[in-house]
Amino acid sequence: MFSLTHLQHTPPEAIKSQILQLVIDYLTDISMVAIPPSNPLYNLYQYGVGHEVHQYLDAMGGGRELAVELVVAMGEQEDVLGFVLYLPVQGEPQACSVAYMAVHASQRRKGIARAMLAKVREACPQVELACFVNRVPYFEAMGFQVLGARGPQVLMSTHDHFSDGLVAVLDIAPIYSSLEVRQIHAYLLNQHGKRAMQDAEKKRDRQLDLLARQAHAFVQLRFGEAAARNTGRGQRLV
């Protein structure tokens, strides 16, 4: 059994720490880089994406030009089984964009993801998200429609069109240029060597190129060239 909680303010520390642990544990599923644990850069992205989600959760307390909301699935022992972090579209109270979503591996195929997204739709009927090609059938089964492609991901929505407003998102460049990331990179360089790290970056880039081709080809097959170039609504960095 599980219960759902909709949060519009910074979650309690116990919930926040469990959400961040899910991000670390399921980085490959969550990150748009889709980097596997076998890649030496994996630990660097664990920090980077974890820190990004951390900033989004902190932004729920106010003080930043970010609108962030959260749906959390809780178990009977007050343990976090899954979460959806989403960003309302500015000027369109009926629309939002899913930024991050995860369900604990032991709790999958129990309807948690479907229930969380249904809870999001209660607040924002038009829900938009981006996923890799292999996840499209999963979201189609929940009522999402394919609308286009952007980079390595397919764009989907509960409506047959994109919302027109902007979504305020974090500028993640400072995270990946931070002292902490440079220290992690230096540690990995010392541990694996320059050649291995260069190969890791090449593998990451080849993987992203492959995923982008797959997303474009998938959408083009569905709708033609025009839709394959569709990038959806705009974003505003904060």
Kindly summarize this structure in a few lines.
The protein has 238 residues and is an alpha+beta fold. The chain has nine helices and nine strands.
Topology:
Elements: E1 3-7, H1 13-25, H2 27-30, H3 42-59, E2 69-74, E3 80-89, E4 92-103, H4 112-123, E5 126-131, H5 136-140, E6 145-150, E7 153-157, E8 167-169, H6 173-176, H7 179-192, H8 194-223, H9 225-228, E9 235-237
Parallel strand pairs: 4-5, 8-9
Antiparallel strand pairs: 1-2, 2-3, 3-4, 5-7, 6-7
Textual characterization of the structure:
This protein has helices at 13-25, 27-30, 42-59, 112-123, 136-140, 173-176, 179-192, 194-223, 225-228, and strands spanning 3-7, 69-74, 80-89, 92-103, 126-131, 145-150, 153-157, 167-169, 235-237. It has a single domain, classed as Aminopeptidase, CATH 3.40.630. Helices cover 44% and strands 24% of the residues. The chain is an alpha+beta fold and 238 residues long. The model has no long low-confidence stretch (mean pLDDT 93). α1 runs antiparallel to α3. The radius of gyration is 18 Å and the shape is globular. α4 links the parallel β4 and β5 (126-131).
Features:
two-stranded parallel sheet, 9 helices, 24% strand, alpha+beta, 7-stranded mixed sheet
